[in-house]
Amino acid sequence: MAVRPLVFFPDPRLRRKAEAVAAFDDGLRTLVQDLHDTMKAAPGVGITAPHVGILQRVTVIQLDPASERKVYVNPEIVWFSDDLIRHTEGSVSMPGVTEEIERPARVRVRYRDVEGAGREEEAEGFMAVCLQHEIDQLDGIFWIDRLSRLKRERTVKRYEKLRRAQG
Fold first, then answer.
1. 134 given a catalytic annotation
2. What angle do CA 77, 15, 22 make, to 5 degrees?
3. What is the pLDDT of residues 32-72, one digit of tens each?
């Protein structure tokens, strides 16, 4: 379909809570395809509608080109494990910088598919990290908010330096 322009940090739309999707129609299907195309072009393994400036609760995740594309509409975490894992994270809206973040190792997510059918699934490891990362974004929590203040400030400075160097 189309690669949409990304919203880049520190755009305030990245800090706003996305609205629930009410219409499961062709507009939603087009958005999902455009998100997938934009994510692949970025490149990334996950993207939300707010990453392209649309404040709707939609995320697309594809961990690698050989895996199935997963679409989550109105997702919410309904359970998470007590055990934690650390994983390197970044964002299509803040390219070029990453940092290690600690999150629950397993989650259960309730969501709707593009047709509006209710679903629930459990995920662990990298998929659990991705789901938490993208659902945070839908809740207006940018990934660097999960860092200590010192690491967040250093990450923002690295990003700003990188952006200046790119012109």
1. yes
2. 55
3. 999 999 999 999 999 999 999 999 999 999 999 888 999 99
Q: How many CB atoms lie within 10 A of CB 157?
A: 11
- C-alpha 118/C-alpha 57 separation (Å) is 14
Q: Write the burial class of residue 139 (CB in 10 Å: 0-12 exposed, 13-18 middle, 19+ buried).
A: middle
**Catalytic choice (99, 100, 120, 134):** 134
Would you call 83 helix, strand, or coil by DSSP?
coil
pTM over 0.70: yes
User: Which residues are 112's β-sheet partners?
Assistant: 73, 118
Question: Which amino acid, 42?
Answer: A
Contacts of 35 (CB under 8 A, 6+ apart): 4, 47, 48, 49, 51, 52, 58, 59, 60
Q: Count other C-beta atoms under 10 Å from residue 40's C-beta.
A: 16
